[in-house]
User: Fold this.
Amino acid sequence: MVQRSEEYRGKHILYPENDLYGESEMIINGESVHVIKMKDGKYGSHFLPYVHYNSITELAHEIIDKVPQFSGLLRKK
Assistant:
């Protein structure tokens, strides 16, 4: 099985190989992101707690848009 990847707003996203319920990880610009697929088919991550998304792609895009560590708003020393 080929792992799906994409570019979004200049960030490289590598999605999990399987889409089974439970915990997995995706990689955004080389950083591991914990993902959980719930029994209702929605996705969540501790980066955006209490919010669930209909697709893992939507979750990845929201993490890049809203989490400073991935959006580029957090400055590294």
Summary: The mean pLDDT is 90. Strands lie at 5-8, 11-14, 22-28, 31-37, 43-44. The first strand starts at residue 5 and ends at 8.
